[in-house]
Specification:
297 residues; alpha/beta; 43% helix; two-stranded antiparallel sheet
Length: 297
């Protein structure tokens, strides 16, 4: 393990704070830009769209409130990893200027629903991406699949796929964030979370000395994933907001000791492209503080 990776593992394992999810994909980028006040008329090509969203992300990352004092990690979209912030490659900027550990999103979207779940699409480009990520100083990865209902066979297959790919990521020398999201609109959400807990525990118990991170939907029952927080094969458990608003996300997070945030949509709560910089910085500082406080409760 390199000196940087050792220091980054220590921060991710033990530092107070949360992970900022700045990894909106091509499919969700227009919505993210719209909520920021940039509508589709502002671009004509996908490249122009990603330039606009990178400008938004860079504005967040360069804000004085965005530091290692409150934020321990940041998840990047692949194209964000390939860009620069203030003249530095994004991952280098995060680590050397902000003391924030860089991750990259590695999945390429969801397959159609089968057995109540949406698996990750096959990703033949993953080995090459992992090689590039390592060269760019990325510490870990994140990949998402979605549980739509409490189907035991579906949940087992989804979690098995996450860990299968997770082992491939560990083999490449990176830290995987396993993310079996449970849809917050699922009518049997609590039952689905029971199945997710059981399936993850089985997979963890078979990992030997390998370690992973987990990114989970805020559960219906407070402390539902406490056994995963304490599991020796888990570096950290982080929570996604999943569509809950800022207040609900922070309220639920504060009820789950040992779990920290990895929020995306709620992180950009209240910021706008046309805001004066001082207003932008004040707004995002307030949001960061709320998420931080919920993460250390």
């Amino acid at each position: 393990m390199t000196t940087n990776a050792t220091a980054q593992l220590e921060r991710i394992s033990n530092a107070q704070g949360f992970i900022a999810a700045l990894d909106q994909s091509g499919g969700s980028t227009p919505k993210a830009l719209a909520s920021y006040g940039v509508d589709a008329a502002a671009w004509t090509t996908e490249a122009e769209m990603f330039d606009l969203v990178h400008a938004m992300r860079a504005r967040i990352m360069t804000s004085p409130a965005f530091t290692g004092d409150r934020i321990v990690g940041a998840i990047l979209f692949e194209q964000t990893m390939d860009c620069e912030v203030e003249g530095l490659p994004t991952a280098d900027y995060l680590w050397t200027r902000k003391n924030v550990v860089p991750f990259v999103k590695t999945d390429v979207g969801l397959a159609d629903e089968t057995n109540g779940v949406q698996l990750m699409k096959d990703n033949p480009g993953l080995p090459a991406l992992l090689q590039r990520a390592t060269a760019k100083g990325i510490f870990g990865t994140k990949m998402r699949s979605v549980v739509q209902s409490a189907n035991p066979a579906g949940v087992d297959s989804l979690v098995a796929q996450q860990f299968q790919v997770g082992n491939q990521i560990i083999d490449a020398g990176l830290m995987p964030i396993i993310e079996p999201e449970v849809n917050i609109e699922a009518s049997d959400k609590a039952a689905a979370e029971d199945l997710v807990l059981q399936a993850i525990t089985r997979e963890l118990d078979g990992l030997g000395d390998r370690r992973v991170m987990l990114k989970l939907t805020l559960p219906e029952t407070a402390g539902h994933y406490a056994s995963l927080v304490a599991h020796p094969n888990v570096v950290r458990v982080v929570a996604l907001s999943g569509g809950y608003d800022l207040d609900e996300s922070c309220s639920r997070l504060a009820q789950n000791a040992g779990t920290i945030a990895s929020f995306s949509r709620v992180l950009t709560n209240g910021i706008h492209a046309d805001q004066p910089q001082d207003e932008f910085d004040t707004t995002i500082a307030s949001t960061i503080e709320k998420i931080f406080e919920a993460s250390i409760t």
